[in-house]
Amino acid sequence: MSLSFSKGLTRRRLLAAAGCAGLPLRAGAATRFAPIAEEDLLVGFGHTSPVNDGGWTQMHDKAIRALKDHFPRMRSLYVESIPYSADATRIFRQFVAEGAQMVISTSDYGDFIKDVANQAPDVGFLECDGNNVTGNLGWYYITHWYASYVIGIAAARLSRNGRLGYIASFPTTSVIASANATLLGARSVNPEATMRVISINSWFDPQAAASAGAALIDSGCDFLCGIMDDPGYLRVAQERGVWAAMWNTDMRQFGPDAYVSSVMLDFVAYYRQTIEARIAGRWRPAGTFLTLGHGVDRDAWGARVPLAIQREADAARDRMLAGWSPFTGPIKDSKGQVRVPAGQTMTDMEIFHWNWQVEGVSGLV
Amino acid sequence: MSEYLHDANAVQGARPESLPAGTPPLLSLSGIAKYFPGVIANKDVSIDFYPGEIHALLGENGAGKSTLMNVVTGLYQADEGELILDGYGVTFDGPEAAIRAGIGMVHQHFKLVSRFTVAENLALGWSETRRWLSAAALAERAQAEAKRFGLDIRPDAPIDSLTSGEQQRVEILRVLSRGARLLILDEPTAVLSPLEVGELYAALRRFRDGGGAVILISHKLDEIMALADKVTVLRHGRVAGSHRVDKTDPATLVTEMIGRPVEQKTAYPRSAPRGRADVVLALEDVSFRDSAGRLRLHPLSLDVRAGEIFGIAGVTGNGQSELADILAGLSIPLSGKVHVAGTAMQGRGPGEFRKAGIGYVPEDRLHKALAPALGVTENAVMRVFRTHPVGGRMAYHAAAARDFTRSLLDQARVTVADPSTPMRGLSGGNQQRLVLARERMISHLALIASYPSRGLDIGAISLMREALAEIRDEGRAVVLVSEDLDELMALSDRIAVLCAGRLMTIVDRSGFDRATLGALMSGRDAGGGA
Amino acid sequence: MSRRTRLAVVPARRIMIGRALALCAVAVVLAIVLVLLGLPLGMVCGLVLKSTFGTVFGLENLALYMTPLLMTGAAVWLALRAGLWNIGAEGQFLAGATAAAAVGLFAPLPAPVALPVAMLASLVAGGAWSAVPAAGRAWLGVSEIITTLLLNFIATYLVYYLVTGPWADHVTDAQVSSQRMMLALPSVYSVVHWGGPVALALVVALGALLKRSRFGYELSLCGSNPDSARYAGIRVAPRLFTALVASGALAGLGGMMEVLGTVHRLQGGLAHGYGYLGIVVALLARQSAYALIPAAFLMAVILNTGIVLQTLQVSASSVLAITGLLVFAVAVSDELAAYVRLETKS
Predict the structure, then answer these.
(1) Sorting pLDDT into bands at 50, 70 and 90, what band is A360?
(2) Distance CA B257, CA B64 (A)
(3) Are residues A184 and A235 in the same domain?
(4) Keywords on this record (chain B) (predicted)?
(5) In this structure, are A226 and A116 located in the same domain?
(6) What span, in angstroms and rounded, lies between the C-alpha atoms of A202 and A208?
(7) Element (H or E) spanning A62, and its range?
(8) Counting beta carbons within 10 angstroms of the beta carbon of residue B528, is it exposed (0 to 12), middle (13 to 18) or buried (19 or more)?
(9) Are A176 and A225 found together in one domain?
(10) Tell me, what's the ipTM?
(11) N or C terminus: fewer CB in 10 A for chain B?
């Protein structure tokens, strides 16, 4: 039926639908999110995994706990391990039923949160990794691909044979962007570098991540990276004497010799600004990217990463901080077709919705 | 206790005519009363049980025999009165305590583990059973015990390969080997062939003569007269009379048991002479194999005519139930043909047999002809739910079903306050009466009744027999399966005798004779040979 | 000593009292656990009551929970009437949902046509999903408990395959989901769709049908005592087959209501254990189809309580624990209700 709709069309149609339902979009928005006293504010946070998962959710939780220092009188609720099912809807509805004025989901819940947002137009909703903006629903995400690119440069220099292994969860756009960015970084210094990907259908499965890592090493990879909440494959890299780069947090303790760096997340500043804006009545639904150095960055380099390599990679990071984008054409997909013509630069939005693997990446889509 | 028996066995000999003066009772019941909600199960029961005596307890169903024995064996505690064992007042707080005191019971339904061997069953509950023991040691012990009590058993045979009589022997041996001085038997001959009955009598007399006490629960007068020394009659939970058997007679006992003299008739003459006798049911070379592959019926032929009562005699488990099932369409014969009123019934089920006018009271009524968990109404309409007024094209008329049930209950003389109560809430006798009334109603051609007197008291039995005679007089046929020769001889026009699945013979009324029939039932020829 | 006896027939009033006490016992155990977890009891109770019964969202949640529970409960209950344990309502639910989703996703029909078609498709799919276990049970005596249970896993993985493979949503990149369907059950009020009233009506109709039809009588006879059913002239095997297939069809229809009414996408986690909770609902309802309604309501309250408790960091598994405790307490109370104290009169 609507298989041919693009994302933009979908969003526009939804906005139109919201308009038809009689919800004032602009004029009403100002009064809807009127200033509120800190002690009256109740914020609900919904997480996809346990708050002590050692990865993604833990980083969000850390930032939420930091909010207490800034807003000691604000009340907050959270629910962890929300399934990706109709129960997610019920939990977000419960936040509203308990009186929350802001509901923030730290993972993508698509319709499940959008439906609730439509039913509760006076409540502000934010969805991490989401892609809808309506009268009261916005999204935020980290431009992790810049950090991945920096790590990719180090990977190509550290790898002896230019063969990188990537442990993926699901072939979602975030994962594709992460893998692509890492290999583009690697190819910037070693055009022969390749990347093999294994998806383990989970964000947290140390056992599966470890066996996927071992399989990649067996197939000749000597640099592991991926997007996991656990240090499963880092331990394997340490044992087998290859390099590994991680995601979310500093995990060097689990493999001090193998550790290269990590795509580090930091939501403290963003959450603080969001709550500040909500209290002041300035909050408006929008899509927000947390950029390099402001919410996402590479971690301090591993102890065994040579200084020269650190410098070379960090030089690219400095250029990115100065405004340069490495995601500039020509970029070919894995079938050899040019998808980004020479001279054209991908926008963050395009990278966010990357759904094809670049040349040299195999096994992802 | 076991030394007691051992000693007793050593002085095996003729029983003294009367006990020496001053011998104390082994067990005395003194003023025992037991109440259940709204029911007085026992009241003022005082009986003495002496060593060296077989003491029969006689009473109708519901007279309080079972409750009293449950009190004696420690399953229930008496609400009033005392149990005095060897001169001392005792209370048993459970069956184990009673067993320790030397009281053992052989139930009507044996409490044996059917997959275990005889020796293993004997080892169960034997206090000296060691944690580790070999099969050989168990068998050796079983053999020793069997020898000690003079009961012949095969230690390594699995229980489920034994006949009822052999199982009963194992059960008795188990109770005795645990040191019982007082042996209680509940209807012990119900499942035995005449030959086995004789063996049981001998074993019990041997035990008595060794100084043991026996309580025999029975409603078979001839059995009591033959075996017991004393008899106590219970009625409505109280002692109605207590006698030395040689000083009383069956008529007195029956009067005491039911409160009025009832003579079961020995014949039920026709109200009108028998008319033209069409064959309503015919079997032609019918044989039957059960699901385990055993041939339960050897090819046999017989026909049942309108207006006759056709008796089927045999010891339980010799093919009568299988034959009755085939006559009612419930079982499909292995070979041969079944005709109902001249129509071959090949490939037709019980529904068609019922439609043809065959009613059936099966042996296991509760599980075959009733749904115990469903209401009385649902059970009452079980054979008529398709027809007007209860059934419509697709419908089930609950109100009509209730009306039907009420009239059926009236006919069956069963009072039920609420017909929606589950069937299992009714007494066995009432369940039986209801099935009988229901089947009588649908049996336009013939009624097949398996053991219809089981579960009924004497009063109800005579009513049931009158009813069967009435059916006959109305020109319908009755197939009466029974183990009670008196009943069969009183009612039947012809009697077929089954033994081990074979049709021994069919005897006409003029040729009825207890001895001949009994011999045929135990597999001997009418001539009385081996 | 033991002055109690077991009744053969337990009056309904004793059962009701016993169950009320069982519910109280569960509440007490729950309260103790909450206190041990350090949660203020009064606040939690207030929150649960207010969120469940005091808000529109709470009441809507109850209605949305009740709908699938009524359907799977009715499915399991119907099979139980025939003495069969349909453990496979979960799989039949998914089969029905998949069939309805196929109509919703691919059939270019206007809603007034597409909805009946989807309904029919879900009935057929649910029935078909239970047909093989039903045939095995009816004619070969293969335990339906095992076969229906195993088919649940097949259904689950089939749905996962569809929603991550051929039917995966490539428009909004929703995970393990099909695309959102435009075909939807009409709304009664806000998010509450017509599935709820239809489910209620179906349960009532089922109760009336079984009470007043010959089939209902035959089924209860087959379920209560197959031997006496044969004796009554009923062909037992076809009845068992029909009952289990109809049970599957009911569960399948429940799946259609869930996918077209509540979730709007075919999803990996769609069945949400409703098939298994249906067993609980049917057990609570005992003999009466009408009792399915309060039983499903109670179960919905428990599920919604689970949602509320999650905002207090009580794990979602608490729902399973509470349900297990409830089933256990009810089973014990039903058994104890059969025992009466013996009055000794003098």
Answers:
(1) very high
(2) 12
(3) yes
(4) ATP-binding, Nucleotide-binding
(5) no
(6) 9
(7) helix A56-70
(8) exposed
(9) yes
(10) 0.85
(11) C
Residue A1: pLDDT band (50, 70, 90) is very low
Specify the number of domains making up chain A. Answer: 2
Residue span of the structural domain in which A150 resides: 145-263+298-362
Q: How far apart are CA B87 and CA B26, in angstroms?
A: 8
Tell me what the mean pLDDT of segment A220-236 comes to.
Answer: 93
Domain ranges of chain B: 23-102+181-256, 112-178, 279-367+445-521
C12 touches chain B (CB under 8 A): no
CA nearest neighbour of A66 among A270, A298, A299:
A270
How would you label B127-165 residue by residue, b for 16+ Cβ within 10 Å and e otherwise? eeeeeeeeeeebbebbbebbeebebebbbeeebeebebb
**Which of B340 and C176 is assigned the larger pLDDT?**
B340
Query: Could you say which of 1.10.3720.10, 3.90.1720.10, 3.50.50.60, 3.40.50.300 is the CATH number of the domain covering B279-367+445-521?
Result: 3.40.50.300
Structure tokens at B190: 């119900």
For C138-159, b/e burial (b = at least 16 CB within 10 A) is beeeeebeebbbebbeebbeeb
Contact between A216 and A185 under an 8 Å Cβ cutoff? The reply is no
- Average pLDDT in the B169-197 region? 85
Tokens of C137: 């049970």
Q: Which residues of C touch A (CB under 8 A)?
A: 47, 51, 55, 57-58, 60-61, 64, 105, 108, 170-177, 179-182, 190-191, 258, 262-265, 267-270, 272, 304, 307-308, 310-311, 313, 315-316
Q: Is residue A42 domain-shared with residue A166, that is, in the same domain? A: no
Q: Please determine, for residue A9, whether its predicted confidence score (pLDDT) is greater than 50.
A: no
The answer to whether the Cβ–Cβ distance between B37 and C340 falls below 8 Å is: yes
Query: CB count, 10 Å around CB of C115?
Result: 21
pLDDT value for B151: 81
Put simply, whether A253 touches C (Cβ < 8 Å) is no
Taking residues B209-228, what's their average pLDDT? 87
Closest CA to B458 of B250, B317, B309, B270: B250
Pairwise pLDDT comparison (A272 vs A18), residue with the higher score? A272
Within 93-122 of A, beta carbons closer than 8 Å to C belong to 93-98, 108, 110-111, 115, 119
Tell me the range of A63-72, B157-166, B372-381, C64-73 where mean pLDDT is highest.
C64-73
Selected residue with higher pLDDT from B88 and B254 = B88
Q: Do C212 and B395 count as a contact with CB atoms less than 8 A apart? A: yes
CATH number (domain holding residue A52): 3.40.50.2300
Q: Which of C172, C181, C191 sits opposite A131 (nearest CB)?
A: C172
Partners of chain A (3+ Cβ pairs below 8 A): C
Q: Comparing C-alpha atoms, which of C292, C316, C293, C321 is closest to residue C304?
A: C316
Average pLDDT of span B79-108: 88
A163 forms bridges with which residues in the sheet?
Answer: A194
The pTM assigned to this predicted structure is 0.79
* Partner-chain residue, chosen from C60, C175, C308, that has the shortest CB–CB distance to A170: C175
pLDDT digits 0-9 by tens, C95-112? 999 999 999 999 989 989
Predicted confidence (pLDDT) at residue A22 exceeds the cutoff of 50: no
Q: How far is B146 from chain C (nearest CA, A)?
A: 36
Q: What helix, strand, coil percent values describe chain A, rounded to 5?
A: 40, 20, 40
Q: Which of A98, A119, A142 is the last residue of a domain?
A: A142
B23-102+181-256 CATH, one of 3.20.20.80, 3.40.50.300, 1.20.59.20, 3.20.20.70: 3.40.50.300
Specify the pLDDT at position B12: 34
In a domain, C20, yes or no: no
CB of C257 within 8 A of CB of C134?
A: no
Which among B353, B385, B421 has the least Cβ separation from residue C217? B385
What domain range is C240 assigned to?
A: 76-292
The pLDDT of residue B18:
58
